[in-house]
Amino acid sequence: MGFKSMLVDDDMKLEKGKGAVLVGVSRSRMKMWIIRVATTVLLWTCLVQLTAIGEIWAPRVLKGSPSCFTPSPRSVKALSSSSVVVFSKVAPPPKRKYKNNGYLMVSCNGGLNQMRAAICDMVAISRYLNVTLIVPELDKTSFWADPSEFQDIFDVDHFITSLRDEVRILKELPPRLKRRVEFGMVHSMPPVSWSDISYYHHQILPLIRKHKVLHLNKTDARLANNGLHPEIQKLRCRVNYSALRFTSQIEELGKRVIRILRQNGPFLVLHPAIQKWICWHSQAVLRVTPPLINRYAYPWWKEKVIDSDMKRKDGLCPLTPEETALTLRALDIDQNIQIYIAAGEIYGGKRRMATLSAAFPNLVRKETLLEPSDLRYFQNHSSQMAALDYLVSLESDIFVPTYDGNMAKVVEGHRRFLGYRKSLLLDRKLLVDLIDRYNNGSLAWDEFSSSVKAAHMNRMGMPTRRVVIPDKPKEEDYFYSNPQECLQLPDEQPWTS
């Protein structure tokens, strides 16, 4: 019994000893955990305080002094010249809040640049009517037969977000209104050409309020050139030069063409307006080309009878390649300069361009600078191909249009906006007279050349006032060729009248 009790006492003492040890270990672990937590909190607090102090004092301490945090000018230069580009995300402007008066749908007509100007006008009109604009529909039925949608040519998301402080733009109508339009329950009409903003307030806005949705078709040249509030004009410019950005695919391919051209030195962009549809419209170069299809079979042509010789003498026709070659030679353009042909298919092809090619052998096109695979997705999409030409035209050392069509006008205005880049604006009426006199031998080359130079000395895209002709908007200067309200006037260049 005594032995058993001793064993029991020993077991009890052993168990108590183990319990005491376990309690001690637990308390030690708890202390270590508390110390770690406290240390972490303390370090984090110190780090926050140091960061705050650094934000206040670091710019003053480090400004102008070299350190591991401030790169040297040499390293900055190296970074800027490297191929690594860091894009900073720009926050979109805040949404403009206004009472929505309804929805405006628009169908643009014409080629790329005609539609581009119309889109700018429709955004400005939507802004000042306080309506929601639906992303414009592009022309698919004219000569170009281009099935491209808006988002195939322009960055639609950038278009919407970059203008959201001015106007609400949607990709499509709300479902209920969309169903009404699909059933044909929509009021559609062409607005009156060259109208000021009061026309849209008094005639168009009541229709939008009445029908909730209004569809405007044939939207080219529907807003006046002059007599508008400066803020309207500036909004047109903002849309044209900022919001209407081409898709990344078009932008990247355009940059590649420009890089290829720049590697070989300066280049001139020539826009020879002798595509089939222009010849068909003006009938100006048919005297040296095969007959075209019968334009008079189309009832929507307003002008039926055309005297092509008279139009040419009045300067209303594009210059032919022969006339263009003479003009460039008279202006002492280097015969070895790269001349990029910004145009679609030339009517008459290589044979039609033979004289110009002989005088300036370094003629190039996007099709000759790029591989067929590069243009595979752009084939049969004339507006997307025109967008490539547009980008190259903007960056050229000299831009020379042979006709004042929409491409020539809009590119001229964009080059003015970019700093009065040299655009040779040909006086065709004078040129055809001088050329005819030179060709018939009544004018020597030296006299011909000096006359051409003198006539174009002040026709290089320099600052100038728009010509305003009341009640004759078609004859006055086009807003998009000279958006003077949006231009920064160089100090060294005075305005000319």
UniProtKB/TrEMBL annotation:
Keywords: Carbohydrate metabolism, Fucose metabolism, Glycoprotein, Glycosyltransferase, Membrane, Signal-anchor, Transferase, Transmembrane, Transmembrane helix. One of its GO terms (cellular component) is cytoplasm. GO terms for molecular function: glycosyltransferase activity. InterPro entries: FucosylTrfase_pln, GDP-Fuc_O-FucTrfase. It is found in: Membrane. This is O-fucosyltransferase family protein. The keyword Glycosyltransferase applies. Belongs to the glycosyltransferase GT106 family. Pathway: Glycan metabolism. Its main location: membrane. GO terms for biological process: fucose metabolic process. Transmembrane segments: none annotated. It comes from the Eukaryota.
